[in-house]
Each structure stands twice: as C-alpha cells, then as structure tokens.
Specification:
Number of helices: 8
Strand content: 15-25%
Distance between the termini: 44 Å
CATH superfamily: Cytosolic phospholipase A2 catalytic domain
CATH class: Alpha Beta
Largest sheet: 7 strands, mixed
CATH topology: Cytosolic phospholipase A2 catalytic domain
Number of strands: 7
Order of helices and strands: HEHHEHHHEEHEEHE
Helix content: 25-40%
Shape: globular
Length: 260
C-alpha cells in the first residue's frame, strides 16, 4: 500500500482521510519501553506501506502527543526522526542528564541539573526550533502544567489554534515557543527538576510576563490520550476533527509497570 506524505496543514485538515493520533505516556527512563514498542510499530507500518526505508511515523500519524518522557519522544518523532534515531539519542540523554548529574543536597532543591537537561534538549531539537518554525512535520501536542494556576496546559502546533499566534500586540503565541523549552517544561517533575519559566507575554516598556511550568505527569494527563482526543475534537482548540470509530484512530503507548 502506497502512502502520501502530507504537509502540516494537511495533517490538521478536517476533511480527507480518517485521522490518526499517537499518545505517549510519561514514566521517566522507562520511556525506553515505549521506544521499543514504537520500533515494532514503525517496522509493521513500513512493511504495510511498501517497505520504503524513508518511512517515518510522522508520515502516518496526524497528531503525536506526549507527556514528560513521552514528550521527549513525541517531539523527536514529529520532527521526522526514525525510531532508531530516537533510541540512540534517548540513551545518550539518560546518561548525560540522570546518571552523571550530581545530586543537589538542599532539601528544597531539585535532584537533577535542569541546565544539563535544557542543554541536551537544545542539542537534540535545535536551540532556535520553535513550534511554528516549520521543522515539525506533523501535529505535536505537549502536555505540561501551569504551576501558579495548577491547570494543565496542552501546547500544540495547530496553525489555526487560538493561541498559536500572538494576540493584542503582547501575548506570545505558542508558535513562537522554543520546542526545547516546551518539552523541558513537560519533563520538569517536581522534586527532580526545577520548574521551567516560559515568557508568555511581552509589551513595550513593560517587563515580560512569564509562567512557571512543571511536568504534565502531575496533571490528570500523564497518559495524554484523553487530552489529545479533546485537543483534536473539542471546538475551543480549533482542530475540529469529527469523532467516530471510522474517523479517528488512537494508539496509546505506556511505559510499563514495576513489579509490586
């Protein structure tokens, strides 16, 4: 079966073929189990679509959603990486950020070095890559949580989204958020990493307004499946895909479970 590569707008378009969503759970370094499942999924889909070595999951799925470690993987897949590329970089990230980080001993200090994680994510995605910069090949949804309000913040790259472009001459649109920073926010697990501060508004002559964000896993959406489905179908998000078993396919992958 041949497949057609689509533009980002085609991935988000309401009409056309049924839509496909991939949702990736949070779970720390157990995300390597997610990568293993993705490798099998990629191989099966590649075979189904003619065995093309250039096939990517970003060609098949119209929206890839992730929380925490799932966000790290989701962003890489949405950029058009193969699962093998994700696997290699995921191991490297774990070694650099977790295994080699010095514990910070203060009782109220984060356990791991957030600057090391930020540096690693900039290297992975590019320091200047933004949600609206054109590098993302399919829909991406990163789930994080606003620390001051306690509300989940799903941050996506839908070009027609209400908050994608800045408004009122001051609000910073989602499309201008650095990709590395959005992912870093989703991975900022309390007690392990410091919150991530993102500039959300700028007005001439005033100090920029910012919000502090933490791991989306401490919201109700560590499994981002429901949030991804709401993002795709609820009117306020301006994606507008029709619901129905014959209209939306949702594939959800977790990170396994530890023995009791």
């Amino acid at each position: 079966m041949a497949y057609k590569r689509k533009s980002l707008r085609d991935h988000f378009a309401v009409d056309g073929d049924p839509k496909r969503i991939l949702a990736l759970d949070g779970g720390g370094l157990r995300g390597i189990l997610t990568v293993g499942a993705l490798a099998r999924l990629e191989a099966l889909l590649r075979d189904r679509h003619g065995g093309d070595p250039d096939f990517r999951l970003s060609h098949y799925f119209d929206l890839i959603a992730g929380t925490s470690t799932g966000a790290i993987i989701a962003a890489a897949l949405a950029l058009g990486w193969t699962v093998e590329q994700v696997r290699q970089q995921y191991f490297s990230l774990g070694q650099k950020v977790f295994e080699k980080s010095l514990l910070r001993r203060g009782l109220l200090r984060a356990k791991y070095d957030h600057e090391a994680l930020a540096k690693a994510l900039k290297r992975l995605y590019g320091a200047k890559t933004t949600l609206g910069g054109g590098e993302l090949q399919t829909g991406l949804l990163v789930v994080t949580k606003r620390l001051d309000s306690g509300s989940p913040w799903p941050i996506g790259n839908n070009p027609m989204g209400m908050y994608f472009a800045g408004r009122d001459g001051g609000t910073v649109g989602n499309g201008d958020y650095p990709l590395w920073q959005v992912v870093r926010a989703s991975t900022a697990a309390p007690s392990f990493f410091d919150p991530e501060e993102i500039t959300i508004a700028r007005k001439a002559g005033q100090k920029p307004a910012s919000g502090q964000f933490v791991d989306g896993g401490v919201s109700p959406f560590n499994n981002p499946s429901l949030q991804a489905l709401m993002y795709a179908t609820v009117d306020g998000y301006r994606v507008g895909w029709p619901l129905g078993a014959d209209r939306v396919l949702l594939v959800a992958l977790g990170t396994g479970a530890a023995d009791p």
